[in-house]
Structures are given as structure tokens and as C-alpha cells.
Design a protein that fits this description.
Layout (H helix, E strand, L loop, with lengths): L1 H7 L6 H12 L2 H12 L7 H11 L2
Amino acid sequence: MANQIAANFSFHEDQVERVADHFTRFWAPSMRRMLSDHVEGGGDGLDGAVQRAVRLLNGT
């Protein structure tokens, strides 16, 4: 699902920020935690924009 969200915003210059905003507005904290844990573990299978959005939200 996260990769599909990134694909939907792929034509925007601020793709990463839009993906991060979507996660903040529409994903439950538990879902964001799971995604963050996956990114911290290497992010296998996740689009680069998703990984950057998660890092943006985490402040890393």
C-alpha cells in the first residue's frame, strides 16, 4: 500500500513530503510504527520515496 501511495504522488516535485503527510493524516500510529520499523530494518521492497518519507517523519 505504501508503494502505491508513493506512485500516486510520483509526478509531484514534493513527492516525499506528500507521502509523509498522507501517512500522518490517514495512517494509524500503529501502522506508522510498523512501517518505520521495516524501514529501520532495511526497508526491503519499499519504494525509495516511502523510505525517505518515513525518515522525514522520524527526523532522521
